Amino acid sequence: MAKEQQTPDASFASRDSAERVMLPQDFITLMRSHLNEADADALLDGLLQPPTIAVRFNPRKAAQLTLNREPLGDPVPWCPDAYYLSERKAFTFDPLFHAGVYYVQDASSMYLAEMLRKYLGDDGKQPIAALDLCAAPGGKSTLLAAHLPERSLLVSNEPIRKRASVLAENILKWGYPNCYVTQNYPSDFSHLHDAFHLILTDVPCSGEGMFRKDATAIREWSLENVRQCVERQRDILTNIVPTLKPGGLLIYSTCTFNRYEDEDQVRWLMSEYGFQLLEERHFFPGRDRGEGLYMAALRKLGEAETVSLRSLKTLNVIAHTADCDSPLLPQPHLRGDESQNDVSMAEARLDLSYPQAISYLRREALHIPAPRGLVAVTYRGLPLGLAKSVVTRLNNLYPQEWRIRTTYNPTEPLPDFFC
């Protein structure tokens, strides 16, 4: 479905060819038909600018360290614990990144925190059951975990196996309890009537908001792809609407600009299923400090006193974090791998230096004396994973698929977010 790049319109012709972004002509025409002239010009110019960079800190883990505000830019105004950065850091080589102390995420996507603050209502205090339907790689799920009421249950789903593995890694590292990672298609949820108080549907889309970050998104864009995305989105929504309890909150989002995948889909939900629109917002590069995004909050009309979670055990759970006391945990509990990298099983702890931590994250053996048995390996007091001590050597138990694969040592600046 890839479409050949076409010659930009006259507004781009004066730019030096080295910095010109070859946007598809059909996309430019579409934006000029959807937006007024000033907004269209601002958007098209914004797509020529470098993307923004932002990080969001894990409230539970970052609180154990002293934040160094010097390398941080302005706070992201709609999300607590989040900041813009002036430059991209070598995040891969920061052990605290692997420990789940922070997540690198586009600032526009963090508007989810503002939606939750405004519209959870009474559910903002009581535990709720939430579903992130298209969750990989895990940015919005980790934000959900940090902002849902205490003792809530979060199901983070991704149908594609490889992407689901990445999602599981990020959820396990983030470290919040009662988080379940599932690998299912949206149709697998359709029988779970009234199962969730909150559903986030960050649906597959034509990816226009990714244009200045991913050249592939430009090459693959076409009007036909937009049409197919609209059909796919409606199929997903049709399957998932019954699983939201009456009175529940649906958050619909895309990383695209056109109204066919955004406003028109929300109006279809309102007319077809009687949803009430609470808010919708577009983020446009050139106007907003973030990448392209559309997000809408909708309320499902009606009332329901309880949710039904018994059928959740029919889902394919591939991983979950430790359970804590929650009235929403289904009985029996969902199955899944909760032992992977679970440092609570360790009999001792060992804090590593920076070079030792990088070696551990590369899954190398460490010749460090430690008490015999299972050891929790930490960096600056925060857990990285497990190792098996044979007194003079640590056999590395860091998950193979999580390891740093490159032996390259960075020359770019390392993060220094903490004193």
The CATH topology of the largest domain, please? Rossmann fold
Report the order of strands and helices. Answer: HHHEHEEHEHEHEHEEHHEHEEEEHEEE
The amount of beta strand, in percent, is: 15-25%
- Overall mean pLDDT: 89
- C-alpha termini separation: 49 Å
Count of domain modules: 2
**Which stretches of 5+ consecutive residues score pLDDT under 50?**
1-20
CATH domain class of the largest domain: Alpha Beta
Instruction: Tell me the CATH superfamily of the largest domain.
Output: Vaccinia Virus protein VP39
SS-derived structural category: alpha/beta
Report Rg.
Answer: 23 Å
Q: Assign the CATH architecture of the largest domain.
A: 3-Layer(aba) Sandwich
Labels describing this entry:
419 residues, alpha/beta, Rossmann fold, Nuclear Transport Factor 2, Chain: A, 2 domains, eight-stranded mixed β-sheet, four-stranded antiparallel β-sheet, 12 helices, 16 strands, 26% helix, globular
